[in-house]
């Protein structure tokens, strides 16, 4: 239990507040911005805030299963970034812009 004493010294409510603020900033960035790269970064910010909260809950409970779940979520996030950047690269190659309003022109 000695390994968790540093994390448990910070109250759990602080982690909840921090992760809520980070998640709200990510949602705000997705809703407001039009640059596809920034939107992808905001989605990653939301995902990482959930990961941080899951790791904090896991640490406070003293169970490692939540931290293992965080690892698998990070693997899925890495695959999501690879696919997202590939889509953005193809969009930039075709339109010379990464503005998401261009996607309206792709309707068939």
From TrEMBL:
Q: What kind of membrane protein is this, topologically?
A: Multi-pass membrane protein
Q: Which Pfam families match?
A: Oxidored_q2 (PF00420)
Record's subcellular location: Cell membrane; Membrane
Q: What is its EC number?
A: 7.1.1.-
Transport among keywords: yes
Keywords assigned = Cell membrane, Membrane, NAD, Quinone, Translocase, Transmembrane, Transmembrane helix, Transport
**Which terms does the UniProt entry file under GO BP?**
ATP synthesis coupled electron transport
A GO cellular component entry from the record: plasma membrane
What is the reaction catalyzed? a quinone + NADH + 5 H(+)(in) = a quinol + NAD(+) + 4 H(+)(out)
Bilayer-crossing regions: 12-32, 37-57, 69-92
> What is the uppermost EC class here?
translocase
Q: Name one GO molecular function term.
A: NADH dehydrogenase (quinone) (non-electrogenic) activity
Gene3D superfamilies (UniProt xref): 1.10.287.3510
InterPro entries in the cross-refs: NADH_UbQ_OxRdtase_chain4L/K, NUOK/Mnh_C1-like
Against HAMAP family, the record matches this protein to: NDH1_NuoK (MF_01456)
Subunit structure, briefly? NDH-1 is composed of 14 different subunits. Subunits NuoA, H, J, K, L, M, N constitute the membrane sector of the complex.
Family membership, please give it.
Answer: Belongs to the complex I subunit 4L family.
UniProt xrefs under NCBIfam families: PRK05715.1-2, PRK05715.1-3
Q: What does this protein do?
A: NDH-1 shuttles electrons from NADH, via FMN and iron-sulfur (Fe-S) centers, to quinones in the respiratory chain. The immediate electron acceptor for the enzyme in this species is believed to be a menaquinone. Couples the redox reaction to proton translocation (for every two electrons transferred, four hydrogen ions are translocated across the cytoplasmic membrane), and thus conserves the redox energy in a proton gradient.
Q: What name appears for this protein in its UniProt entry?
A: NADH-quinone oxidoreductase subunit K
């Amino acid at each position: 239990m000695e390994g968790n004493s540093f994390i448990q010294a910070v109250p759990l409510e602080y982690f909840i507040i921090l992760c809520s603020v980070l998640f709200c900033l990510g949602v705000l960035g997705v809703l407001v911005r039009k640059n596809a790269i920034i939107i992808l970064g905001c989605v990653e910010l939301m995902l990482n805030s959930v990961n941080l909260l899951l790791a904090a809950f896991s640490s406070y409970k003293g169970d490692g299963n939540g931290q293992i779940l965080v690892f698998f979520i990070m693997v899925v996030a890495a695959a999501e970034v690879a696919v997202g950047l590939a889509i953005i690269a193809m969009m930039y190659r075709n339109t010379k812009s990464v503005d998401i309003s261009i996607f309206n022109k792709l309707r068939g």
